[in-house]
Design goal:
Blueprint lengths: L1 H13 L2 E4 L14 H16 L7 E7 L4 E10 L4 H15 L5 E5 L3 E6 L4
Antiparallel strand pairs: 1-4, 2-3, 3-5, 4-5
Helix pairs in contact: 2-3
InterPro entries: LDL
Protein name: Secreted protein
Keywords: Signal
């Protein structure tokens, strides 16, 4: 039982496919969120309240930076197996794509997650 509980998150993470959008953060989008703003949003707000909700609409967030307003959005269909799985999915989307794209999406057998960190 304990082994199964450990292996299931690894299996779902291994089966995840992340796709970065084309276009660098500054090429088309404006007001891009910092990595810290994205992390604060997903870890403190989104995953706490949405990891187990099958919610397909966009959630938008705004960060009032000292020099400009940053805007982003996230959408998800399906339900994560737990809050940690939600946090891991955001990391899998943002970490490989942040410096080269304006957003990305991740798909697993159960969830599709789309994150845009630049205003479109």
């Amino acid at each position: 039982m304990k082994l199964t509980a450990i292996l299931l998150p690894l299996i779902s993470t291994a089966a995840a496919t992340t796709t970065c959008y084309s276009g660098a953060p500054t090429s088309e989008g404006t007001n891009c969120l910092s990595k810290l703003s994205i992390k604060n949003f997903w870890s403190l707000q989104y995953c706490n309240y949405r990891w187990n909700v099958n919610y397909g609409d966009w959630d938008k967030w705004i960060s009032n930076n000292a020099s400009h307003v940053e805007r982003g959005r996230v959408a998800k269909t399906g339900v994560f197996g737990g809050m940690e799985e939600c946090l891991d999915a955001f990391k899998e989307v943002v970490e490989p794509c942040y410096d080269t794209a304006q957003g990305a999406y991740l798909t697993t057998a159960n969830v599709s997650l789309e994150v845009n960190w630049c205003q479109w």
